[in-house]
Amino acid sequence: MNGFPPILAEINNLSKDQITWLLYSAKRFKLGVVPVGKYQISDTHQPIIATSFLENSTRTKHSFVIAIQKLGAMYVDFNAETSSLKKGESLEETLLTLSHQGVDLCIIRTSVSHQFDEFKTNPPIRIINGGDGINQHPSQALLDLMTFIDDGGEVKGRTVAIIGDCIHSRVAHSLMELLPQFGCKILLAGPEECLPKQLDSRLDTSMFHVTTDTEEAILKSDFLYLLRIQKERHSGPAAYYESYLHKHGVSLSRLEGLMANGKISKVPRIYHPGPANVGVELDMALLKSRHYRAHAQVTNSVYMRMSIIKAMLTNLGDVSSA
Ligand code: CP
Predict the structure, then answer these.
(1) CB atoms within 10 A of CB 234
(2) What is the best residue among 57, 65, 111, 293 to mutate for testing ligand 1's pocket, by most ligand atoms within 8 Å of CB?
(3) How far apart are the CA of 172 and the centre of ligand 1, in A?
(4) CA dihedral sign, ordered 167, 111, 113, 316
(5) CATH of 138-294, one of 3.40.50.1370, 3.40.50.10610, 3.40.350.10, 2.60.40.1220
(6) What is the assigned CATH class of domain 7-136+299-316?
(7) Is the CB of 60 inside a 6 Å radius of any atom of ligand 1?
(8) What is the mean pLDDT of residues 290-303?
(9) Which one of 2, 8, 87, 171 has the minimum C-beta count within 10 Å?
(10) Digit-coded pLDDT (tens) for 228-237
């Protein structure tokens, strides 16, 4: 197997075998199969890992920080606001500087979509994309796949409905590259303004269905993945904001009503990358219910991010080295 790439900017940077290895390794961390003493990446070199969050984050940043510390690596919080980026220094020069200070890997979040395209070949440092604009959020999609598998076994032959602001969601874009590789179909649902007019030609379109009928998506899917309306990425307020909860929001009573009418056999599990907007894409009763799995996603995020960091720092690839 080939080694892991020095930059994880998008799901397509990884082969299916590498993704399978990440899932395997993350599960071993979760089960505690790897003893604490062996969490170190190297016996001779304590890696230094930096985070640089140029956009707000709760889940991604802190789970990476916890993963770094569980792996026994040194952690540096690079503060973009007080850095020389503010004096006009380029991101490339910034990362080269960190690299020459001994930083081995940098996890970066940015509001600029495709910010990492310039580093596709010969990146100045190992990079994990912690979310770039509306483009990609690969580690989130990987931990989501881990959670689907934890909850339902194989995803092959199953369908995930991604409901909400699909075109502005970097998580949706990463899931769209990831899940079909494992035989999982995707239903994209929401208001017309939130749905792609055309799917990316690199995707296997036979694995996708796009609908404005959210009830259809609920009825035809095994997992419901809800998205926030990402107003900060809109050019102005959209007409559908007011009617969103009624038309496309998912409430516990809506799901229980579908079950009472015999349209679904059970209330499906609900996933959300967070942060959730209660009263928009879901209601408080659903968020507080046992069907809501976002906290399981958060728990898995630490293990998946440990797995990704370990793979990228040790260039591992075969299962025996997990
Ligand atoms: N899922 C996710 O990216 O959440 P944060 O914005 O809180 O990191």
Answers:
(1) 13
(2) 57
(3) 13
(4) negative
(5) 3.40.50.1370
(6) alpha beta
(7) yes
(8) 98
(9) 87
(10) 987 788 877 7
